[in-house]
Design the sequence.
């Protein structure tokens, strides 16, 4: 009888310890997976998507610089118009500088830095071309300025700038997609783990219930019946 009680005690203790272990393991894994999900969401929210927005802003402002250059060269019919066009062109240059500063703080990988450095080098060359165009316009050489602005070298340089910016957008979009996929994977893993933990906990609880009925309730019922028979003589 003592051996039976010890066996029952050990079995029940093991089952309840198993329940506690399942709960702890499920909670720990959930914390790990939630941490991964938080990291993925944070990367998308404060790095990848803001970088996409900033690069697109740079690309838009670079296009505006190109438009203002054409306006400076082709629509400066007098000194007043040339001064107005010059001012608009310089304003566009300042806007490029501002969005570049905003984006530089978001660069997060060597590949992204390499692409940005390539853009910066091409943009510096393009700025020097723009300076040459301004000097020609100031000297009254409108035809020469237009020839430089529309020349194959300048066009190729402008295309290279846009191509590099496009690659930067693609890089950040891929990073956002990668972190989004990782977040979904972690969420799926956490969900699956929770279902497994629920199943194991249910099985352990059912085993404890069956054991209690067979090893506790049934003997007590038998003892009650025996005692009643003895009392009845």
Sequence:
């Amino acid at each position: 009888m003592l051996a039976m009680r010890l066996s029952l005690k050990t079995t029940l203790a093991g089952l309840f310890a198993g329940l506690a272990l399942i709960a702890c393991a499920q909670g720990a894994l959930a914390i790990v997976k939630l941490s991964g999900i938080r990291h993925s969401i944070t990367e998308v929210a404060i790095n990848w998507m803001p970088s996409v927005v900033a690069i697109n802003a740079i690309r838009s402002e670079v296009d505006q610089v190109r438009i203002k250059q054409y306006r400076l060269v082709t629509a400066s019919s007098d000194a007043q118009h040339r001064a107005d066009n010059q001012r608009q062109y310089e304003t566009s240059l300042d806007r490029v500088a501002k969005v570049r500063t905003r984006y530089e703080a978001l660069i997060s990988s060597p590949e992204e830095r390499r692409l940005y450095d390539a853009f910066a080098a091409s943009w510096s060359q393009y700025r020097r071309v723009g300076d040459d165009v301004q000097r020609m316009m100031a000297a009254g050489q409108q035809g020469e300025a237009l020839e430089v602005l529309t020349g194959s070298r300048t066009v190729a340089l402008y295309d290279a700038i846009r191509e590099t910016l496009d690659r930067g957008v693609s890089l950040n979009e891929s990073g956002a997609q990668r972190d989004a996929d990782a977040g979904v994977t972690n969420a799926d893993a956490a969900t699956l783990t929770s279902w497994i933990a629920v199943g194991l906990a249910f099985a352990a609880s059912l085993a404890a219930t069956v054991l209690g009925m067979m090893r506790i309730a049934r003997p007590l019922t038998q003892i009650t019946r025996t005692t009643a028979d003895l009392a009845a003589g």
